[in-house]
Amino acid sequence: MVRQRIAGLGELPDKTPVPKTVGTKALVVVRDGKTVYVCDGVCPHGRWLLSLGTYENGKLRCKGHGAVYDLATGQGFLNGYPLQIKVYKSEVVGEEVYVEI
């Protein structure tokens, strides 16, 4: 795993999914107060960008078909069908956000 800066806190509006790329990997970053979540940026169900979705209470809803993902675990569901996205360890140091890829 490689630790890399992904954003400054000022680049991350609270409770708003933000698209980011590390190398060729599409990610989505969500800041909820002092907690920052980083996960895969594409929904495995319909290939929609998760940054187009909505965030509420630790969950990210894909705009495409409404799949819902828990950003702490990556576990998701759509109409009872289980889905999974990869979540990445993030760390806030001062005003910078780092992710382990």
TrEMBL record:
UniProtKB keywords: 2Fe-2S, Iron, Iron-sulfur, Metal-binding
Name of the protein in its database record: Rieske (2Fe-2S) domain protein
Source organism phylogeny: Archaea, Thermoproteota, Thermoprotei, Thermoproteales, Thermoproteaceae
Residues of the Rieske domain: 4-99
GO molecular function, one term: metal ion binding
